[in-house]
Amino acid sequence: MRASGHPLYDLTVSNPTICGFNYNESTWLAPLCDSKALVYDPDPCGMRSVREAVAAYYSDHGAAVDPDALVLTTSTSEGYSYLFRLLCDAGDEVLAAQPSYPLFDFLADLDDVKLRSYPLFYDYGWWIDFAELERRINPRTRAIVIVHPNNPTGHGTKVLERNRLQEICQRHGLALIVDEVFLDYSLQRSDTEELVSFAVGPHPVPTFALSGMSKIAGLPQMKAAWIAGFGPEAVLREAMARLEMIADTFLSMNAPVQLALPTWLQLRKGIQEQIRERVRVNLACAEASGVEVLRVEAGWCAILRLPQGRSDLAEALLRECCVVVHPGAFYGIAEEGRIVVSLIGPADDFAEGMRRIAGFAKESTK
Ligand SMILES: Cc1ncc(COP(=O)(O)O)c(C=O)c1O
To answer: Is the pTM of this model over 0.85?
Structure first.
């Protein structure tokens, strides 16, 4: 469609660096020029001063994080890979929600780990099907992955759900891997439980929280993230020593980005406020469009339910309306008629895209 010159309304844009947000160039780039970066003195877990800045981020979330239980990585994806290596032998299994972030299949495959899904179900909000989750645990299961809040469902893990997950992990000897990249993007609905970081205790089971600059500061191109470890002391000590070994094998963090990371963390609130405002505007537009929007509590996207129960919805929207959306199946949504839209794209494009989607939905009910 693009090659044939059609103007497209792209509602999949989720790269914040091309959405028109204001990053003050000199303020954001200046910290990359620290002359300390000319000295190579690698710490496998990342510079201690930088880990202290990450610990301060968590203290803003009410959590006490030990800088010695942090490992810096170039991305959350790299963090997943380190954790799969830490927790699994080839052929071991991890459980991850469905629907969720589609990269898990590839990450697990590359690390020779088998990914098994556990279902979420929608009932004016998303819920974990715990009976099914527990049924899918077997002797080779090593960990449960939680995305909190989840992408693309935009729901957070409730306190009661967290307690239940911890109890299941304890009973089966599993670790928890918690991806909190969207933690700072709550819609703060009055009818929703506040998002609480898994970094806040207690931690009865080994727990690894993942996050990073790509969402916290809207800087996916800077390649800076981390793993924060929690849990019973002896287990955690051994896990961190092993993670240090894995990180030491690659030493993948570069010096300029590490030195800049504390400044970016300080600047994060300015960019987060712009992103949150864009999400609010686009979500309000989607909700006013007449198309059904599944309930969102947090994050950067929304799931729309269209009356057409066909599996080629995304293709039809592209061909007939010049609107680009993700098919629900891309995120493992089993039901037909679901599409996923990003809420951080430019508001004018989003509004025109939604107008076209609403027109398309109406056609089917005629
Ligand atoms: C749930 C989730 N985790 C991680 C990431 C990627 O993070 P990173 O760029 O740090 O690998 C994404 C990107 O969209 C995501 O949706």
So the answer is: yes
